[in-house]
Automatic annotation (TrEMBL):
Domain NADPH-dependent FMN reductase-like: 47-132
InterPro entries, per database record: Flavoprotein-like_sf, FMN_Rdtase-like_dom
Natural source organism: marine metagenome
Name under which the protein is recorded: NADPH-dependent FMN reductase-like domain-containing protein
Pfam family, one: FMN_red
Single Gene Ontology MF annotation: oxidoreductase activity
Length: 158
């Protein structure tokens, strides 16, 4: 059974909303119906995610608010603690990225992508930036991102 590790931080609740929708998409019963494979989704706050959690997952969903034009300190801490121990053991695994931003959000994407690339994780979906006021479109897009990541893993595409 493929496992997605969701690692996130949320200060005001917006990122949590995106994560909840992405997890709904990843746990969609249609994925198992279409592929015959259910995907296990494990959700952890960034400060709680450990090296072993990363090593035992088959794919990743990272989610962060944009703070001062950067990823959250909690997600940065996650990378600080897990990057080198996981460097040679998680190459080629798929990942997706959610960013909740009051502004443009691209700076947070630009902060996370090089770290994921350094780990040689494969971006299999475009990062979702939910900028400005949270909308139903943002939530639908988060759900679709989760289902695309999980569906591809279940089908063995990535």
């Amino acid at each position: 059974v493929p496992t997605i590790l969701v690692v996130y931080h949320s200060a005001s609740g917006g990122t949590t909303q995106l994560v909840e929708e992405a997890v709904k998409g990843a746990r969609s019963p249609q994925i198992a119906e279409a592929t015959g494979v259910a995907v296990d989704v494990r959700v952890l706050l960034a400060f709680d995610a450990l090296v072993d959690d990363v090593l035992t997952a088959d794919g990743y969903l990272l989610a962060t608010p944009e703070n001062f034009g950067y990823m959250s300190g909690a997600l940065k801490d996650f990378f600080d603690r897990t990057y080198y121990p996981c460097l040679d053991h998680t190459r080629g695994r798929p990942y997706g990225l959610l960013v909740r931003a009051g502004g443009g959000g691209t700076a947070a994407v630009d902060a996370v992508v090089p770290l994921a690339s350094g780990l040689d994780w494969r971006p299999v979906v475009e990062p979702l930036v939910a900028a400005g006021d949270m909308t139903d479109d943002h939530l639908v897009a988060a759900r679709e991102l989760g289902s695309t990541l999980a569906g591809g893993m279940a089908a063995g595409i990535w």
